[in-house]
Amino acid sequence: MNVHDAVKNHDMIPSADVRDTKVFNLRGDHVGDIRHVMIDKPSGKIAYAVMGFGGFMGMGENEHPIPWAALHWQRDRDWHARTYGYYGIVPYWI
Prior knowledge:
The chain is an alpha+beta fold. 17% of the residues lie in helices and 29% in strands. It is elongated.
């Protein structure tokens, strides 16, 4: 199993899989697509995802930042804690 497959089975998402992910509101309406993520340099954490919306075939599209935490579901931290512990690094969520 390669690293890409391993993280897909846990609470991680490779950056290559983020682009063009569809975003839906609470009613289930498609409101846009993720274009890229913005990483905070000092902490290394993802600050927000940039969602593209509107326009037609990429023309006239607007972009809007969405807090990364707003796009996530409940997380299981056991695997992450073991991995960070192995390297002796304080987990990013602490």
